Amino acid sequence: MKRYKDIRNLTDLQARKLELKVEYTLKQEMLKSDTKTFFKQFTLGALIKKYATPNNLFKADEKLNISSTAMSLLLPMVMNKTIFRGAGFLTKATVGLISGKVGKSLDAEHLSAIFNSVKGWFGKKKEKKDKKFVDYGIPPDSETY
Question: Which is more confident, 13 or 65?
Answer without folding.
Answer: 13
